[in-house]
Amino acid sequence: QPNPLQVPAVGLIAIALIVPLSALFGTIIVPKFQSYFRLTTKQTVILLNVLLLCIPVYGCLGFVLPFGGLKSGTELYYLAVWFGIVIGSIQSYCRTLFSELVPHGRETEFFALYAVTDKGSSWLGPTLVAIIT
């Protein structure tokens, strides 16, 4: 298969290690950022979603503009760090926001539903990829 960014297999393995390490860093640094700027959990989740949205937007800029966008393999490492920081913290903040929205006294029911929908939908993505392929 063609590899337009010229990333070797070792580079892809490195990216697979960079993302979880960055996620760990994100779970440590984002709460400090939140408390420094006095953001609520909801504001933090919105900010993290905007930061997550920047990744595909940046990647698509190369299709539209003659400058910018994902053009080299080196940029993948920076995007892996960015993605890791955001995805590591957004998972914990979404769970925190969910716990704030749950009615008092019904935590068990709602978190059981959360667990079922979280793990129960894990088959959907691979199934769609298999169908498309």
UniProtKB/TrEMBL annotation:
This protein's name: 31175_t:CDS:1
Domain of life: Eukaryota
